[in-house]
Amino acid sequence: MSENSCYLVAGCPGQRELGHLAVWSVSSAKAGNGVDCLRDGRRDTFWQSDGSQPHFVNIQFQRKVELMELHLFLDYKTDESYTPSKVSIRAGTALHDLQEVHVVELDEPTGCIRVPLAAGVQQNLTPDAHLEYLEDASPLHTFFLQIAVLSNHQNGRDTHIRLVRVYGPRADPMPLAALSLPCSIKTCSFGMYASVR
């Protein structure tokens, strides 16, 4: 398992993590293992469902966002029957109109599973895999993303997910040449103050 997977935004060149813009909820949780464990960035914590399948993680944005990838950190070696084996990714404007975007079948995953949400991506769902984007790859535009755990390994009932991250394309800043400044900018630190966002 690589150190830079799932945990650092730098692991996705040209993308930024958008989870902080969303309201997160889950279908159920054991005490002490709630939705906050999905976002704390720690390997030793996890969300644990409490109830019958399917189990849901709901990610709701206040405005329509562009999404490229979903990262799930799973650990079969530690969680065994709590590890998801089949996951459905759904998107829509709200809970009532979700459409299935992706179904992911997993075989004893340990590490970061990168699920492509954009159209035009070469798939490779092995842990810590790199995704290859085609030139015409287009992001998924959505208000609402849902992760539905349909089944677990060894027919387990409850599930553990250790971390979830959602990534969208990084907005290109305005090129400095387009600002028509009376002087030239030579350093990055000076360029940071050349315009107001």
TrEMBL record:
Entry GO CC: anaphase-promoting complex
One of the GO biological process terms: anaphase-promoting complex-dependent catabolic process
SMART domains reported in the protein's UniProt record: APC10
Limits of the DOC domain: 1-193
Pfam families reported in the protein's UniProt record: ANAPC10
Keywords: Cell cycle, Cell division, Mitosis, Ubl conjugation pathway
Family statement drawn from the similarity comment of this UniProt entry: Belongs to the APC10 family.
Function: Component of the anaphase promoting complex/cyclosome (APC/C), a cell cycle-regulated E3 ubiquitin-protein ligase complex that controls progression through mitosis and the G1 phase of the cell cycle.
The protein's name in its UniProt record: Anaphase-promoting complex subunit 10
Organism: Chlamydomonas euryale
